[in-house]
Amino acid sequence: MTKRSATTPTPLRRTAGLLAGLALGVAVLAAGCSSDGADTDCGLDACTVTFDRGVDASASILGVEAKLIGAQGDQVTVEVAGEQLSLTIGQQAAEVGGFAVTLDSVTDQQVQIRVARNAGG
Hints:
By secondary structure, the chain is an alpha+beta fold. 17% of the residues lie in helices and 49% in strands.
């Protein structure tokens, strides 16, 4: 019977493993977000999407597609996860496909929404 002693990872090996894990996590977050005519700022469970008005703007976030359909005054129509929503600033979050969607701001140039995963979904 051969007796082997348990080895513990060296601090350098632990650090390298941690850095590799962090790099993978960043790559997964970056790969899960793409846009055309929009800027995105995503965390693990929520994204803020700023659409440019006057262009065909869309973003792929949190595994779903978000599109700006139209805006008039302080009312905006967006499509999230295949469903159209009419939003106004200050309105309670609209629920769609396991997400809560709110309208953060509307200007002549941009529309900003927030899409967050529902805690229960």
